[in-house]
Design brief:
The structure holds 2 protein chains of 2 kinds. Chain A is an all-alpha fold. In chain A, helix 6 packs parallel to helix 11 and helix 8 crosses helix 10. Chain A starts with 21 loop residues before the first helix and ends with a helix. Chain A is globular. The N terminus of chain A is likely disordered. Chain B is of the alpha+beta class. Chain B folds into 2 domains: 233 residues, Rossmann fold (3-Layer(aba) Sandwich); 105 residues, OB fold (Dihydrolipoamide Acetyltransferase, E2P). A 6-stranded mixed beta sheet of chain B has the order 6-7-8-3-9-10, with helices on both faces. In chain B, strands 13-12-11-14-20 form a 5-stranded antiparallel beta sheet. A 5-stranded antiparallel beta sheet of chain B has the order 15-19-16-17-18, with no helix packed on it. In chain B, a hairpin with a 2-residue loop joins strand 1 and strand 2. The longest helix of chain B has 18 residues. Chain B is elongated and about 80 Å long. The chains are: A mainly alpha, B alpha+beta. Chains A and B meet through helix 9 and helix 10 of A and strand 6 and helix 5 of B. The structure holds adenosine-5'-triphosphate (ATP) and magnesium ion. The site of adenosine-5'-triphosphate has 12 residues of chain B, from strand 2 and helix 1. Magnesium ion (MG) binds next to helix 1 of chain B. Chain B: GO terms for molecular function: ABC-type sulfate transporter activity; ATP binding; ATP hydrolysis activity.
């Protein structure tokens, strides 16, 4: 008879699992993760670091670079916020209502995933350009959509929408009718039930959807460049500037911008993940 | 609060879940809705709560017709089988929710809400856990939170749908006793659904036995157990055996033999004789039911014997003292001491 092994404390954050194969799967995961993600990223950062701190700082704080980073991150934040509102709404409609064509509608939500981004960009530009069907409605009001940051936001909303819908939808499906009924029997009206019971319960999923939509929008290139107009200091996004630097054979300059983008994105995603972990620990759910 | 259900019918897409159900719930009583799965218990409870509306018929709270009132207006406490606690709220927030969502005019002050919620948590014996989240509690504790939450709104009726259904036997028994105590202390009119007859018999003042969308019998546990109104109730509540029998010359006959049991107050004719395993006497006589032991098992302090009776080997069950020597293939003769006879519908 083997005696029970003393519980090992220390580096292991979680209790050892009864499921075997921890070592093997961890090893595989780390190797795979390194090959696919870590090594390329490290190579990128090494390249950027090659010019030394002063050179890095100069390249990173170049006004055009700063402007493009600002454009990229603010438009991505705005787009992700818009997606959170409407994505949640769409998920709600898909889960809660039964209407003819619901399945088709449900399938259409995924189209931005599948469509080549350039196609999306060209289609959006055609519609939102001053001569396009929607752009023409706004042109008399003096509002230009295509070739401005508004156009960038629209392209980012388009490509980011499915992320929010698809993360919120399954969680919403799980919110049992009983929870809502419990709220109603306690006297809460519809509005109170939604704002105090359902939405807070969905918050972790919404946050995940936000993070994904945001990450996708920051990195988006294909659809944005068609609609953005790409005017330096106005509607030039950082990924485009990277491509421009590459075309100038300024590989280090491109790597610097990429590294800065990577760091900002990483910090934001890390923050969101920490919030998630905290909520999971507290409420025992979320993802 | 007295609640009257009057001739309620409920259809789901033309499927009748309840047919013409009428039930008077007396103010302050604890009444159990008991019945097999799909008999309409939950539907009836949800109709009372206002979570569902009747296809026809009416529901009265006192003298007031509540049929068209919304759930919010009915002010009922509802406890769900799977607790339905709000996971993102602490226990204290869960319990105070019903008071916090009241319109400003009727909402107590924040300090008062807190005091009341803590008092309820004390009542359900969860003092000290108010800062926890539902997922940090055991099932039994969660259900007690759900009850405290329902009580916080001072409901006119308390409705519980299989409140202990998801808990293990031990916890169930404890909570059962405890629910009875809470009821006696607070005096809320309480309706609870269960399909556990032991729970219903032990806990309720009256029980309402349902089957296939109809009420079969309403009565005290003694009434229902000792004087079942229908073969269904006899078979559903407690252990029972049945045999086809005929009444003739004021006696019961089974398989063409008189069994030595007087058919008091029974009209001659065919029907079914029901009796419980513990309501039989072993006899040494010819005029009796007789059969061969087909199997036996120990049930508590007695031995339950399965007897195969008559030419067509009908199985009946008898309780014998655990030290009775009867073994496999032993022949036993017995007479039901207490029985019910349900004549065949003509
Ligand atoms: N929303 C609904 N839509 C359609 N049919 C329903 C609905 N709710 C209940 N029913 C049907 O009504 C009948 C009674 O259901 P109900 O839930 O009241 O049974 P129950 O006695 O509570 O059963 P259980 O013990 O399994 O909970 C069942 O046949 C069920 O299929
Ligand atoms: Mg039910």
């Amino acid at each position: 008879m083997a005696t029970a092994a003393p519980i090992r404390a220390g580096w292991r954050l979680k209790q050892p699992s009864v499921i075997p194969g921890f070592g093997l799967t961890l090893g595989f995961t780390l190797t795979y993760f390194s090959l696919i993600i870590l090594i390329p990223l490290i190579a990128l950062m090494l390249r950027a670091a090659g010019i030394g701190p002063a050179g890095f700082w100069a390249a990173a704080t170049d006004p055009r670079v700063l402007a493009s980073l600002r454009t990229s991150f603010t438009t991505a934040l705005i787009a992700a916020s818009i997606n959170v509102v409407f994505g949640t709404l769409i998920a709600w409609v898909l889960v809660r209502y039964r209407f003819p064509g619901r399945r088709v509608f449900d399938a259409i939500v995924d189209l931005p995933f599948a469509l080549p981004t350039a196609v999306a960009g060209i289609a959006l530009t055609a519609i939102y350009a001053p001569s396009g069907s929607i752009g023409a409605l706004f042109a008399p009001l003096g509002i230009r959509i295509a070739y401005t940051p508004i156009g960038i936001v629209i392209a980012m909303v388009f490509i980011g929408l499915p992320f929010v819908v698809r993360t919120v939808q399954p969680i919403l499906e799980e919110v049992s009718r009983e929870i809502e009924e419990a709220s109603a029997t306690l006297g809460a009206n519809r509005f109170q039930t939604i704002t105090r019971v359902i939405l807070p319960g969905l918050a972790p999923a919404i946050l995940t959807g936000f993070a994904l939509a945001f990450a996708r929008a920051v990195g988006e290139y294909g659809s944005v460049i068609f609609i953005a107009g790409n005017i330096p200091f106005v509607s030039e996004i950082a990924p485009l500037l990277i491509v421009i630097r590459l075309e100038e054979f300024n590989y280090t300059g491109a790597a610097v911008i990429a590294t800065v983008m990577l760091s900002i994105s990483f910090l934001m995603l890390l923050f969101i993940n920490l919030v998630q972990a905290w909520s999971r620990k507290r409420y025992g759910y979320g993802n | 609060m007295q609640v009257s259900v009057k001739n309620v019918r409920k259809e789901f897409d033309r499927f009748p879940a309840l047919h013409d159900v009428s039930l008077d719930i007396v103010s302050g009583e604890l009444i159990a809705l008991l019945g097999p799965s799909g008999s309409g218990k939950t539907t009836l409870l949800r109709l009372i709560a206002g979570l569902e509306y009747p296809t026809s018929g009416a529901i009265y709270f006192g003298d007031e017709d509540a049929s068209h009132k919304s759930v919010q207006e009915r002010n009922v406490g509802f406890v769900f089988q799977h607790y339905a606690l709000f996971r993102h709220m602490t226990i204290l927030e869960n319990v105070s929710f019903g008071l916090k969502v009241r319109p400003r005019e009727t909402r107590p002050a924040a300090a008062e809400i807190r005091r009341k919620a803590l008092e309820l948590l004390d009542l359900v014996q969860l003092s000290g856990l108010e800062k926890r989240y539902p997922n940090q509690l055991s099932g039994g504790q969660r259900q007690r939170v759900a009850l405290a939450r329902a009580l916080a709104i001072e409901p006119r009726v308390l409705l519980l749908d299989e409140p202990f259904g998801a808990l293990d036997a031990q916890v169930r028994r404890e909570l059962r006793k405890w629910l009875r105590e809470i009821h006696d202390r607070t005096g809320h009119t309480t309706v609870f659904v269960t399909h556990d007859q032991e729970e219903a018999l032990e806990l309720s003042d009256r029980l309402c036995v349902m089957s296939q969308g109809r009420i079969e019998q309403v009565g005290t546990p003694d009434d229902v157990y000792d004087r079942p109104a229908s073969p269904f109730v006899f078979g559903f509540i407690g252990e029972s055996s049945e045999l086809p029998a005929t009444v003739e010359n004021g006696e019961f006959w089974v398989d063409g033999r008189a069994i030595g049991v007087a058919a008091t107050d029974q009209a001659p004719g065919k029907g079914k004789l029901y009796f419980r395993p513990h309501d039989v006497d072993l006899v040494e006589a010819d005029a009796a039911l007789a059969g061969v032991v087909a199997g036996h098992r120990r049930v508590g302090g007695t031995r339950r014997v399965e007897l195969s009776v008559g030419g067509d080997h009908r199985k009946v069950e008898l309780d014998l003292p655990f030290d009775h020597p009867a073994g496999e293939k032993t022949r036993l003769a017995f007479r039901p001491r207490r029985w019910r006879f349900f004549p065949e519908a003509v």
